[in-house]
Amino acid sequence: MEKIYSFWEVMMLPNISRFYNNKYLSAIRHTFYILMPFWLTVSFFDILGNLFLNPFGILMSGEGLNLGFWITGLSGEEYLKSDFVKVLSEYKQIISIGYSLVAVIATAVLSAKLSEIWNTDRRLTVFCSLSAFVLISPLAAHDQNVMKDYFAELGFFSAFSSAFLSAKIFSVLYEIKKLRLKIPKAFPRELSYYLEAVLPVLITLLIFSLLSLIFTEMKHGGEEYLKSFAALDIFQNLFFVLCYQFFVWSLWWLGIPGHSITAKIQEAAYMSAQFGNNTGSVFSIFTMGFFEASVIHVLGLIIAILVFSQHEQWRSISKFSLPFMAFNVQEIFIFGLPVILNPVFLLPYIFAPLANTFVGYMAISWGIVPIFQTDIPWTMPLFISSIAATHSVMGGILQLVWLVMDIFIYAPFVITANSMHLPEEKKGGEKS
After folding, report:
1. How far out from the chain centre does Cα 149 lie?
2. CA–CA separation, 40 and 430 (whole Å)
3. How far is C-alpha 263 from the geometric centre of its chain's CA atoms?
4. Under a CB-based contact definition with an 8 Å cutoff, are residues 114 and 66 in contact?
5. Which residue among 277, 331, 366, 376 has its CA within the 20 to 30 Å range from the CA of 35?
6. CA distances (Å), 34 to each of 108, 128, 134, 247, in order?
7. CA-CA distances (angstroms) from residue 331 to 153, 165, 216, 274?
8. How many structural domains compose the chain?
9. Residue 247 φ then ψ, to 5°
10. To the nearest whole percent, how much of the chain has pLDDT over 90?
11. Is 183 left (phi over 0), alpha (psi -120 to 50) or beta?
12. Is residue 198 in a domain?
């Protein structure tokens, strides 16, 4: 293992170091650092809304622990029409706004960092990007699912892409002197400074308004096409899914949220497969629940570090991240260690979820584990989530098998790293 790593270190480490210091990837990391307290807050809201305050969830409903009946004394239609269900449903809808806050913050932080890279006015760039993000997300044209469409996982893709594109367009236009308005000297200097930028702002937002119109017109036809494409057997093909997982986790290793980039495929292909399993109309192995359960491999790395690592910094970060990872919140750990762009963990970080996918496919194909039938919130605690999703204790055992596998996959890399001089992340983080 040391020989393999030595070869990797000599041949690839210099290039990876340059890649790690890439100014654009650094801007993305900086954005995630600032997002972290808000992301944890959203995760708490998600647990609160979907697990504890969901009148139709695993705790309150008759299909679960039936706490709703014990609290209200009502069941059936009476329970569904009760004030208790109405209040919980309204509050659950209120706290779902957390996703919108995180997406907006991501747009603002990333565009601010890009303004430094492209040497444009920070405030103008940030507000231009926020306006572009709102334009590209035509809220009035959609129903209440807009939060999911534009502010959840898809929202991060919209936020990051609109921040990059709008900041770049604005910076290019801002550098064109002929587009600066000539303001009479009688105006206050600060007002003149911002008035000069009217045309760059106007053109940037006009471009995004046209993009919004195009996307709105394409939305329905594109969704119908994607749905028909998602019905193809290829999305349940093991080789395709392994390639899909390789792509997702490779993006994560680069510091790019892979699940956000592929969110539309997840929604069209694997959420519909989940719904089909729930209704009994189809039998699909690969669903949203299956992939959410396989994120457990990051917990495998944390345990491997706690058991086998001699690096106190790694162990300290792992101990701190462990409670969050129990609810599938991996960002603190992978950015804090970091796993992102860390050559020590490139191979296991990508290979472990592929191994989980293969073993899960075989277990369900052979009838050892039932299919994932129920859509479970991604923040539901590990093991409990798989049991609830498969309606069987075998779902939890599958996750346990995955976890043991993942610990052994990561262990050789962690042990080998004990004898290596590892570069430490700069303490204190990056200043905003």
Report:
1. 14
2. 19
3. 9
4. no
5. 376
6. 11, 20, 21, 26
7. 14, 25, 32, 25
8. 1
9. -65, -45
10. 19
11. beta
12. no
Distance of CA 367 to the CA centre of its chain: 31
C-alpha–C-alpha distance, residues 159 and 126, integer Å: 12
**Judging by beta carbons within 10 Å of its beta carbon (0-12, 13-18, 19+), is residue 101 exposed, middle or buried?**
middle
Q: What tokens appear for 430 in the block?
A: 């990056």
Residue 84 in domain: no
Distance CA(375)–CA(55), nearest Å, equals 15
| Structural domain containing residue 366 | 9-22+231-432
Residues 396 and 20: their CA atoms lie apart, in Å, by 37
What is the crossing angle of helices 312-325 and 297-308, to 10°?
A: 140
Residues 111/126, Cβ–Cβ less than 8 Å = yes
On the 0-12 / 13-18 / 19+ scale of CB atoms within 10 A, 88 is buried
Q: Chain-centre distance of CA 231, in angstroms? A: 24
Residue type, 175: E
* CB contact at 8 A, 362 and 241: no
Flag the least confident range among 92-101, 171-180, 367-376.
92-101
The amino acid at 78: E
One-letter amino acid at 194 equals: Y
Query: Residue 402, class by beta-carbon neighbours within 10 Å (0-12 exposed, 13-18 middle, 19+ buried)?
Result: buried
Structure tokens at 4: 């393999």
The residue ranges of DSSP E strands in 105-152, in sequence order, are: none
Contact 411, 345 (CB under 8 A): no
pLDDT digits (tens, 9 = 90+) for 21-73: 677 777 877 888 888 888 778 777 777 777 777 777 767 776 667 777 788 87
Whether residue 251 lies inside any domain: the answer is yes
CA dihedral of 332, 333, 334, 335, whole degrees rounded to 10: 50
- Domain assignment of residue 301, yes or no: yes
CB 403 within 8 A of CB 296: yes
Q: Model pTM? A: 0.71
Which pair of structure tokens corresponds to residue 245? 């997982």
Q: Which of 94, 98, 93 is nearest to 41 (CA)?
A: 98
Please give the backbone phi and psi of residue 271, each rounded to the nearest 5 degrees, phi first.
-75, -40
Tell me which of 109-118, 158-167, 348-357, 360-369 is least confident: 158-167
From CA 250, how far away is CA 244, in angstroms rounded? 10
Contact 138, 216 (CB under 8 A): yes
